[in-house]
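User: Okay, second chain of the day. Same drill as before: sequence in, structure tokens out.
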Amino acid sequence: MTNDPIVLLFVAIHIIAAGFWLSQFVAVIALERFAALVKGKPAEVAIKMAEGNVESLLGTAGGIGILISGLVLTFQFRYGILGIGGVNTPMWLVIMQVIFIIAMAMVGALVTRPARPIMEMLGKALANGEPAPAEATSGLNRIQLMSRIVNVLVLVNIFVGLFGVNGVMH
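Assistant: Same drill. Structure tokens below.
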């Protein structure tokens, strides 16, 4: 590795951002279990909204942290983006960049955009003390599936990064 303080700072930010993503997985699983316990009751709506907020907050913080620190580290080591530019960009890094782009595109198109109207429906139901509307529940199930796929992509990226860095840097 290196003793350069800038590199070490951004490696730490990268690890912390990955930790946000990992903690999101655990929090969402716990909240989904709580929601299952109160299914059909107004408390389910509050838990589903909390789940969405936790996922959004930790996912956004993790994604932005990974993006910024990853770009800084990529340029610091004189690697390229998707193998373009830079000097000898390792294949594991190109794979990680492709997976990251796919995951972020999925989040933008298949998670964030459809979640807005669903969260509004849930907010209205919560304010009125009503259970989650069927339309919101079905939409939320689709979003949760896409979110799980993104979570798997994130885990794959973490493993590719761990094995790639260890193989290259030792």
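The first helix runs from residue 5 to 37.

User: Thanks, on to the next one.
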